Amino acid sequence: MPWVTFVPVLLLAAVIFLGPGLVVMRGAGVRGLPLFAVSGPTTVTIASAVAVAAPYANIGYGIVPVAVCALILTATALVLRYVLAMRGIVFGAQPRKSFDDGAGNSAGIGPVLTSAQEWVRRGAIIAAFAIPAAIITVRFARIIGAPGNISQTYDNIFHLNAIGHILITGSGSSLTLGNLTTASEAFYPAAWHDLIALVASTASISVPEAISAGNIVIAGVIWPLGMMYLISRISTGQVLPMLLTGALAAGFSSFPYLMIDFGVLYPNLLAIAIMPVALALTIDLLGLNPTKRRIIPVLCQGALILPGLALAHPSFVVALFGLALPLLLTKLVRLAAGYRRREATGRQLIGFTVLTAMFIPLVFIVWDMAGQSLTSSRWQPYQSVSQAIGEVLGAGPQGRHVSLVMFVMLVSGLVASIARRKLVWVLGMAFIAAGLFVVASALPASETRHFLTGVWYNDSFRLAAMLPVVLLPLAVLGGESILRGAAAAATRNRVGETASRILRLPCATAMDKIAPAAVLLVGVFAIAVGAQFGAVGKEQVFASANYRTGPQAPLVSTDERALLDRLPSHVPAEATVYGDPWTGASLTEGLSLRRSVSPHIVGRRTPEELVIMSRIDEAGVNPLVCPAVKDLNVQFALIFDDREVHGGAHPNTAMDEADSAPGLKLVDSQGSARLYQVTGCGPLSSN
Known about the structure:
By secondary structure, this protein is mainly α. It contains 24 helices and five strands.
């Protein structure tokens, strides 16, 4: 399917990702930018929670129970609003912000906007969203190549089959998804898989196409909206910071692009896209935003977002706790200062001091408990500390090219955050995230290193992806400082009047008035263009290599994909197929919607599964095979060539005598890929 005809699918995917949350949050009285920013994360919670609850209600997971849950929550929100209104508590939207006139209104509330100013404000918000949405969508399309292409990587074996497993079984619970077999049932954060399964089933498209659509919506819609919301809590929603957010949101190589390259880490893509909204609500909850928000709505929104973040990837709940530390300390310092000025009570100061004293050890305990084992955290440092710091400041972690524009923005932002002391906590968050990346990528293995970064397997790729969440606000502060300085210089030097004389234009005074605005707009455009050079372009090249198919593709070749596409015409829906996961032959669940004996490379195996995985070609000859075949309903076996996804060698005897096996019958082939029917055990009954 070409990208042009794929546009309706993208629009439907956007409705699925935003729609349920949009209805619920609108019912809760949220509107404007917060409404759209919070809708996606809310949908994540709804979809993943429904997937967990569905088995207990004995219903299948799908769009209908998700929609019903959204309507129930909407009705609950409406009733709650009514009850609170009866008690005089307004569950509504924010006061209108003042127009961005460059005056630096610290209160964030000013005179009612004129009609023209309101249109400018709305236009700026739309532009701030549209710029990164368009850039990310185009770059993702170029990386993926075609909507039906797959990432030819190790982790994608699980992700493809997990979505297929949800579609086949109607069960997507994070509590039991595990490694996709009954024997290996365990917790696995399945929010991303649940949502992609919704897209596939609702749009009636293949799993790979649903992945392409869902990832573009996460990266091109949810991520920019979340960052705009976070910046609005830092800058009180002014126009210039919004435009700079749009200019820079697509300018980091480590997010969102790295997450569809390395791994692939699709669940991390979703979790990190939610992080800005979670941080924005934390800022509101602590009252660090100059425009004060009511606590009850913030708490309710947080309650609807945090479960989705945990079921997208729980490691980023831990990250949220860590990044909240500078916010808590800033609030504590402000309360102490307010107490000295008699603007805060002693009870408030003592209460928050106790809360902070309890929260800090809690963070350390959770951090320690969430750490992965040393055996599964084998990632080693690859550079020096100075190189790691340079990669952070140049927005080019993991060996990508440094971006000069991002370097200038970040260094300027560092200076600006120190100069604007009320925003020093922005630098604090950046320091924590950057520190974790430096530790993972540059410090030698030790217990301290493992304690700090073991939550992320000591993997600098995962920590690099989190950097833009906290570096983008810093870059926006830097860009704002630079452009406001340039606009002020244009005003002082009467640039507009000079330009009108040189160009022999009338209305020199009018030109002088619009010159500062022109400088700001040209500056935003230049930053948006400049941010696309360097690391982002290099990352696009790296990532695209993983999505190219061909005769020697590392996971599934063109011949193998063609046979998998035809497989449903030979294999009944209730049958199970054996295939070696190392060679991609087990991808029958994700690419053919047929059950697989070994849907993932790792996982617990039953004795019957082990028999099938070692000697299926002995069906009808070895007395151990047929009982296992009948128990698992294995009616077909698939064999690809010996090429493995990691280029390794894991010899497998399950199909080494397939050509001469009396209990196997060849039913289809393409190139070296062959599909056999298991005939040596007689007719098999459907499960």
